[in-house]
Amino acid sequence: MKKENLKNMNDIGAAEALKKHFPSAVESAELVNHEAVVYVRKDDIKKVLAYLKEKVGFEYLFSITGVDYPDRTPRFDIVYHLKTLEHPLQLTIKVKVEEGTDVDSVYDIFKSANWCEREAYDMVGVPFKGHPNMTRLFMWEGFEGYPLRKDFPLYTEDK
Amino acid sequence: MEGDKKLSLFEKIFFIEIIKGHLLTLKYMFGKNVTVMYPDEKRAPVPKSRGIHTFKLESDGTERCNACGLCAKFCPSNCITIKGEKVDGKRIVTQYDIDITRCIFCGMCVDACPKDAIAMVEEYEISVYNKDEMNLDQQGMHKYSSRVPS
Amino acid sequence: MPRKMTINMGPQHPSTHGVLRVILELEGENVVGSDMEVGLLHRGIEKLAESMTYQQIVTLTDRLDYVTSMTNNITYVMAVEKLLGIEIPPRGEYIRTLIAEMQRVVNHMMFVGIYAMDLGAITPVFQTFRDREIILDLFEMISGARLTYSFFRVGGMREEIPQEFFDKTKDFNDKLLGMIAEYETLLTRNRIFRARNIGVGVVSKEYAINCGLTGPVLRASGVPYDLRKAKPYLMYDKMDFEIAVGDNGDCYDRYLVRIKELKESQKIIAQCLEQMPSGASNCEDYKKYKIPKPFKVPAGEVYFSTECPKGELGFYIISDGTKSPYRIKINSPSYINTAALSGMIEGALIADVVATIASLDIVLGELDK
Ligand code: SF4
Ligand code: SF4
Fold first, then answer.
1. What is the pTM of this model?
2. CATH topology for the C4-366 domain
3. What's the CA-to-centroid distance between B115 and ligand 2, angstroms?
């Protein structure tokens, strides 16, 4: 997977090239309605993202999302969205995280991960290891529960 | 970028850009006023403005609404309460409340109604002194009915 | 060794554009460290959306960035349309392009006015608000509201647009360059304005990309990235316009980029009006997506983003095949730009902090979601 080849690639081509380069770290690479979704093993996420940034040119990380699937183990998906600014390419990188475990922070690679990781922690409760300030972003300190988990109630009775 | 170049000495000494700016403001001192002095003067809202809700009535003065409840189901902020009952084989509303404090005036209830029974009129001054009055009941829904074509 | 002092700017501060709280650590008048607290306007839009049908969520997107509701609506409905695989007829696309650009004009006018006001100039805000009002009136004419339009629907729009709207838009558009020239007379070469701007809040290209900055802030730092060109959506590939790019990445460049974008928008609006085709503007089976019947969306996921006036607004929607989304993530430009603020104001004076925040053009409703 090289920077020069990106020009003639589409999203899924880039995802498959990534899988070829990291046969063990990348679990799957497939197209889900127009999006190239790559599942990466949790322990390798930092390595893969660093490679994508430095060697391939996916230098723009703009969103980190936590998604909760209560019936599945591992329970959470952390979704990274990356793109290149030179070509119209975009990758959706996902890691599966079990409740109670943490993911490596990518803050030292992408500064934009700062708030994005805090938000993901705030909303679904997946902590990021190595983040300098792993506190809640939107909810106040001392708030209990994680609002975007599926078992968090939408309405509560007024007291 | 253009516009980025330094002020020339001529501009610097004679305050050219400042004078130009002042001339522009001076020009408007003699122009027509554009500010509408609300509440003494009122700007006419466009006819379609989404203001307060009202019932549309049949030509004989009865409500069109048959309490089907679709508007309540579709309201994004869940602020409509409807009760209806069957009288002479026809469903009529017995209770129709809109909690105006929660309404976001999105107009989805109007779009949702299959009978075209409610409308929104351009009345926007709906503030009151008492929070309890911020509830539009069935009676209140008749207030502007004459304004909408049946 | 001067004593350090910590002061609290906001959340109730006129120039933090809402309820942003910036905690500044000062040495004399220089900022040596800063921290931010956000979330004071958090309404849980993402959580709420999970309980609503796809049509109802349009009303929530209005309330993200309440200055540019139209582009929020467009982005959201286009994301859902991409998931559903709906095609919109050309007239519909042209109308969306036209309205998106008008919304950009509104936003940038408001930016110029408020920005000047934050720096202490009171006149421009009257000029820009007077002109912005014309477009608000036009939008009111088609949608019935002045800020929270909820005008676009999945598959089309709320109602047909009358011809009068296009005529009035044309009148407005013909005068637009004159209006921009007025703002420029008041600001661009004004020495006080320049002194407060040039070299203030400099963002380097690397920092901008690394922080994921977006919109005019990114472009002012010399990165020619605009989604309208990079990944053309709607009718932008048929339009003739340029991307505004700055060189220095300071506040002044961010202002110039927006002025240039105003002019480019004027061009796009003129082209849209000229090329506006006739025919249907809603998709073929629009009845299927119309209120009051909720529709189901096939399972899958989509990320769709457009170039909103403030930057890239993206919706990441995961659907599980029901009437409401399983998860919606809103990737908003104000959020990502504000996150980088701490690095921009390092070493600056307090007064420059105000200028920097204002030059980012943030809306807290969008930041806090
Ligand atoms: S306007 Fe919107 S919020 Fe208000 S009652 Fe109708 S549907 Fe509900
Ligand atoms: S107003 Fe319309 S939608 Fe609402 S209950 Fe009456 S008939 Fe049904």
1. 0.91
2. Cytochrome-c3 Hydrogenase; chain B (1.10.645)
3. 7
